[in-house]
Amino acid sequence: MALIELGILLFIYTKKYEKEVRMRRSWAVGLIIISILTMACGGAATVDDYKAAFVYVGPADDGGWSQAHDVGRQYLVDQTGIETQYTELIPEDATAFRTVAEAYIEQGYNIIFGTTFGYIDAMAEMAEEYPDVIFLHCSGYLKNDTNFGNYFGKMYQPRYLSGLAAGAITESNKIGYVAAFPIPEVIRGINAFAAGVKEVNPDATVEVVWTFTWFGPEEETQAANALLETGADVLAQHQDSPSTGVAAEAAGAKWISYNTAYGKDAAPGAFVTAPVWSWGPYYVDVVESIVNGEFTAEAYWGGMETGLVSLYELSSDVPSDTAELISQRSEEIIAGSFDPPIVEEEFIDNVIGTVNP
Description:
Blueprint: H1 2-43, E1 51-55, H2 65-80, E2 83-87, H3 94-106, E3 111-114, H4 120-129, E4 134-138, E5 148-153, H5 156-169, E6 174-179, H6 184-200, E7 205-210, H7 217-229, E8 234-238, H8 243-250, E9 254-256, H9 263-266, E10 271-273, E11 275-277, H10 280-291, E12 299-302, E13 309-311, H11 320-335, E14 351-352
Parallel strand pairs: 1-2, 1-3, 3-4, 4-5, 5-12, 6-7, 6-8, 7-14, 8-9, 9-10
Antiparallel strand pairs: 11-13
Helix pairs in contact: 2-10, 3-4, 5-6, 5-11, 7-8
């Protein structure tokens, strides 16, 4: 009898033990699944995993190109909270750019924005050397399939619109254009501007003087004065400082600024309008795509329909009928029913100057 009772107890204990083992295995499997899911969620990137560095060719407060980018950088910080830093006055020299960029990478910065054309080769090389860092080059044309993209805007669109204004207000029919370098971006903009001038004033010409510097207040002033001495009563520019406008105002001429509207403070009596940049929304979009794992290395070229480029408000110097035409053409450009001509190899027929100085 005692053996039978012992057998029954052993059977009950064995079944209970097997049940506990199965329960423990189920709990263990469950815990593993939960751990995997937790690790996956915990491993998702956040903005705190990234730091963005900006490299400028000019001063961050130049009132022009570099300042437009720095305003965009500040907008990026405000919208996303990402940590950023910038270095200004870095020449278009591969060694100079590399020195700055590598210092940032050593500090943990993993997004590098190079904001001038001349950084192109150094950025392409570094993208191969640092595959875990995203490199984004402004105004260039090189990219790879993983971590190196480029970005720019169709600035020729608002430049054309500003040409409509310039052509309408000139009295001498001589318009001067202070330009940095004879590269496709600049030539394209000059021709678009001149096309706008010609549309409203077939008798007007646009004369170009090259400075061979993006930011050179002295060179820009000299070029502006040379154009004013030929009889130009309206000046435009593809430069980063407001020096052209200051010279125009001193001579009683009018001025089409560029990059930002800060120029109206530098030469309010001369300021008519300006083709301007708004980099902030683009910077937010591209950084969010990186954080969300959706980044693709692309060649981005945004037009007026994106808000990246636009024409600043017109001064009262512009006649009302021309202002109406500018508004109409703006709407057509944004809708895609009209686009100014793109000519980059040579100047159109109302431009005085050469693309091969």
